[in-house]
From TrEMBL:
Top EC class for this record: transferase
GO MF annotations in UniProt: glutamine-scyllo-inositol transaminase activity; pyridoxal phosphate binding
Active site positions: 196 (proton acceptor)
UniProt superkingdom: Bacteria
UniProt xrefs under SUPFAM superfamilies: PLP-dependent transferases
Modified residues (N6-(pyridoxal phosphate)lysine): 196
Keyword annotations of the record: Aminotransferase, Pyridoxal phosphate, Transferase
Name of the protein in its database record: Glutamine--scyllo-inositol transaminase
Gene Ontology BP, a term: polysaccharide biosynthetic process
Organism from which the protein derives: Ruminiclostridium papyrosolvens DSM 2782
Length: 401
């Protein structure tokens, strides 16, 4: 008889996980309100303005600018500081492509540095070692919402005159040492893409405590026009990164659930960690004491195939999915993507040189061995957690027979 669901057996997970995105009457009412208002863009509407005010407060920052998506938010941040050709921007070796893509889209050169193998966040000492006279900015990524060692990163940056742009795409409502992610650096960026912890399908934001940065960013995101311009004055080179009123309407509702969901995921992630303790070959992402609010955008763990009779990670993920557990392999080291390897920067003069890379041992190991579970797996009940571990054990038992 077939046992594993992928081979025709019965899936272990019978009661489904909660769906994502979540919505209720609040989303419906706010979006309907925008439709009826006939003010669908930020210039005449009030929702984007209201969202920006509330999200800035929520993230412990003075200013917030809503934009089209998270990738644009990083590009916008780099543009504010005039970062471009010939400049170097330090980023972690393992992250989602956008962190690097935003840099190359600005014609600047990404410099990859290694991560902590446990927390999967950029190592401050590796950042410091990679600094050259051309280094203009650093983009630490709060991986899965685990805070980077921000006080050290900011101190090194300050000493060397380097801009700090925090990629908090996974960190809505997250904290490092009781301070909100995104509020340490010159600028923090967030994503509201469909899978993110609060979402409007696509969307992004830039937060800052600096009025000048905010003012300049505002002009750039609105095609280079000064605020309230009526005569097509374009004072600097800009782009259209404007968030629309529908996005903001959804986000105003979504923001009301973030804290509660963060708490629930943290409780469940801690429990899942305990349940995995006796499963050989599974090592979850670690947690430093400083991660006072760890949002768990993903539940990440190393998979060691030697405890699964050599079953390759990609195959294991397929077995896991068939059992009803939404899983995915981790991001590869950025420069291992075809995009970087073939220097395909859209004719831009980036010239990434893989031979001159810094040591990326930990990033490579993470990229090649980590699996992540969708955060909705942590948003249900304890039975869900037992099912996750049950599915892993079921596959392990079959392959080790
Ligand atoms: C999702 C994500 C982004 C970019 O977000 P988009 O809104 O999809 O453009 C940037 N950085 C990281 C680490 C992300 O996961």
């Amino acid at each position: 008889m077939k046992v594993l669901a992928r081979d025709g057996g019965t899936p272990l997970k019978q009661k489904p996980f909660p769906n994502w995105p979540i919505y209720d009457e609040r989303e419906i009412n706010l979006v309907t309100e925008v439709v009826k208002s006939q003010n669908w863009w930020r210039v005449t509407g009030s929702k984007v303005k209201e969202f920006e005010k509330r999200f800035a407060e929520f993230q412990g920052c003075s200013y917030c600018l809503g934009v089209t998506n998270g990738t644009s938010a990083i590009e916008l941040a780099l543009s504010v500081f005039g970062i471009g050709e010939g400049d170097e921007v330090i980023i972690p070796g393992m992250t989602f492509i956008s962190t690097g893509l935003a840099v190359t889209n600005c014609n600047a050169t990404p410099v990859l540095v290694d991560i902590d193998p446990d927390t999967l966040c950029m190592l401050p000492e590796k950042f410091e070692q990679a600094i050259t006279p051309r280094t203009k900015a650093v983009i630490p990524v709060h991986m899965a919402g685990h805070g980077c060692r921000m006080e050290e990163i900011c101190e090194i940056a300050k000493k060397n005159g380097i801009i700090v742009i925090e990629d908090a795409a996974h960190g809505h409502g997250g904290e490092w040492k009781n301070k909100r992610l995104g509020s340490f650096g010159d600028v923090g960026i967030f994503s509201f893409q469909n899978g993110k912890l609060m979402t409007c399908g696509e969307g992004g934001a830039m937060v800052t405590n600096n009025k000048d940065i905010y003012e300049k960013a505002y002009v750039i995101q609105d095609v280079g026009r000064p605020k309230n311009d009526l005569i097509y004055e374009h004072v600097i080179r800009g782009a259209n990164y404007r968030m629309n009123e529908f996005q903001a309407a959804l986000l105003l509702a979504q923001m009301e659930r973030v804290d509660e969901l963060n708490k629930l995921r943290d409780k469940h992630a801690t429990e899942l960690h305990k349940l995995f303790a006796d499963v050989k070959g599974i090592t979850p992402q670690g947690r430093e004491e400083g991660a006072t609010i760890f949002t768990h955008y993903m539940y990440m763990f190393y998979y060691d195939k030697s405890f699964f009779s050599g079953l390759p990670r990609e195959e294991f993920v397929e077995y896991l999915k068939a059992e009803g557990i939404p899983a995915c392999v981790c991001f590869p080291v950025l420069s291992d993507t075809k995009f970087f390897a073939e220097n395909d920067f859209n004719g831009r003069n980036v010239n990434y040189d893989k031979k001159k890379e810094h040591d990326l041992t930990n990033s490579k190991k993470a990229g090649e061995n980590i699996i992540w579970l969708h955060h909705r797996t942590l948003e249900g009940d304890e039975e869900d957690l037992r099912d996750i571990v049950g599915a892993v054990k079921k596959i392990q038992n079959e392959f080790n027979k």
